[in-house]
Each structure stands twice: as structure tokens, then as C-alpha cells.
Design goal:
The protein has 159 residues and is mainly α. The chain is 70% helix and 0% strand. Helix 1 runs parallel beside helix 5 and helix 3 crosses helix 7.
Length: 159
């Protein structure tokens, strides 16, 4: 008749929801926009609209994988649907932040086999003020963290 309620899944989802609320609260106003965020979004724009790696031919100072990945997001969502193009990039950071949180949970669960340890690792990742502040910004480092965690998830094996 009724599906069995899995308390662990409910707790996991509540922690994820709390992390999403903390991250997204005022994310378009704090921290202030930085030039790097605009640079990376403009390079994603250039890739889609100009079919070039960057809007300026001398601007290849970072590995392009991050803004190539970001350009896929902008292809789906658009650049200005949330006001400034950087806002759309910050929503992309929210998605990566939550996916990274899931990966932190899964990696810890695979290593320890303990639900509480996994939940603690997830909670620390999601509510860290430093993490929230820096992960909100459209930085290539944040994209790299997602890919690093994804690769670690595959490296630690199956459970």
C-alpha cells in the first residue's frame, strides 16, 4: 500500500536542501562580482557565439576545459535568462556545488561504509562558510573540484 519510508534518504535530502538554501541565499549579491567571473563567462560566450576559444586572441591564460564545460550549461540555459550572464554562471556553480556534495557523500560512504560519517562529511562540505563564499563565484577551480571528486568517486571502488 504505502512505500516504506527510508529515513536515511529523507535526512540526506533535508541536508541537501539546507545546503542549497544556504548557498543560494543572496548569491547574486554576495560576494561581489569579480573580473575573473566575467572573463570565464565571456570565454564561454566566445566559444558558443564566435566559435573561438576566447574573445581576445591573446587571452589564453587558463586551461580551457572549464569554460568549455560552462559553455554547455549556457547552451542549455542561455546567458541572460537570470539577469547578468554571471548570474547564470553562479547558478551553474550551485548545480556543481550540489553535485559535488553528493560526490563527497558517496566517496565517504564508500570509504567508511558509515551513514553518519558520510552525512557529517556532506554537512561540513555544504555549510562551510568558506566553501559557500568561494564556490558561489564562477571560478574554474570550482569546476575542477567537481571533476576531481567525480574521478575520486570512481577510484575508491564500488560499494
Amino acid at each position: 500500500m504505502f512505500a516504506k519510508v527510508n529515513l536515511k534518504k529523507i535526512v540526506f535530502l533535508l541536508v541537501m536542501l539546507a545546503g542549497a538554501v544556504l548557498f543560494s541565499f543572496n548569491m547574486f549579491n554576495f560576494p561581489a562580482y569579480r573580473e575573473d567571473e566575467g572573463t570565464y563567462v565571456s570565454q564561454a560566450w566566445s566559444l558558443l557565439k564566435l566559435k573561438q576559444m576566447a574573445p581576445y586572441t591573446y587571452w589564453y591564460d587558463h586551461a580551457p576545459g572549464g569554460w568549455m564545460f560552462m559553455s554547455l550549461w549556457h547552451r542549455i540555459v542561455g546567458f541572460f535568462n537570470l539577469g547578468l550572464a554571471v548570474n547564470t554562471g553562479r547558478v551553474f556553480m550551485l548545480v556543481l556545488f550540489l553535485l559535488s556534495g553528493v560526490l563527497v557523500y558517496k566517496i565517504t560512504k564508500k570509504i567508511t561504509g558509515n551513514f553518519l560519517a558520510s552525512l557529517l562529511a556532506l554537512t561540513i562540505f555544504l555549510v562551510s562558510p568558506l566553501g559557500i563564499t568561494l564556490f558561489r563565484r564562477v571560478f574554474l577551480d570550482n569546476i575542477m573540484i567537481f571533476w576531481l571528486l567525480l574521478s575520486l568517486n570512481f577510484l575508491v571502488g564500488k560499494k
